[in-house]
Amino acid sequence: IYFNISHSGEYAICAVSYENIGCDIEKISDFNIKTAEKFFSKEETAIIKSEPDYDKRKELFYRFWTAKESYVKYLGTGLKTPFDSFCADLEKQIIKNTDVKIKEFSGIDGYKCTVCGNVIVKVCDSNITPSCCGKYVVDIEPNTSEDGKEEYHLPCVERIDCSTIKVVIGHVAHPMTEQHYIRFVYLETEH
Known about the structure:
By secondary structure, the protein is of the alpha+beta class. 20% of the residues lie in helices and 28% in strands. Helix 2 (42-50) runs antiparallel to helix 3 (54-75).
C-alpha cells in the first residue's frame, strides 16, 4: 500500500493507493508572479500571466503548485525533480508527456488540493445524515427489495466477466436533481 500526506493551515489530507500516489493541499494566500517565473515551466507561467484578474491568477498559481507538488511526491523524488522540468495540463488533468493523472478537489474554501496518481474516489465526511425523497438513507443490500415498492435507490449488481462488475442504482427512472446526485458507489469485494 502506498500513501502520501500533506497539510496546510487547518487541514491535512492523506491519499492511499495500491500504486504510486502523491497529494498536496495549500492554503491560498498572496503570491508573487516571480515565484512562478522561477519554478514553473514557461508554458504554465504564461498561462498565469495571461489571466488579467489577480484573484484568478492566484487561483491558477495554486492549482499549478498543488499539481506539481503532488507529482514530485508521486514520483518519490520530492523537490529533487525541478518544478520547471515538467508541465501540468489543468484542463486535461494530466502531467504532460506522461500517462500520470491529476485530480483537483474542491470544497474547502481558501484551499487548493490535488492528488496525483490513479484516483478512484474521495471519501469525505460532511457530518450530515444523507437523505433522499424525505427519508434518511441507510445501508442497503444489493439486489434486494425496498419494502416491495418500486426500487429508486437500491443498487443492482451484475457481473459482466471475471474482472468487470456493473452497478446500476434502482430500476426506476429517478430525477437527477442536485439532491439526488450520487457522488460515488462503494463496492466491497471478497478479493
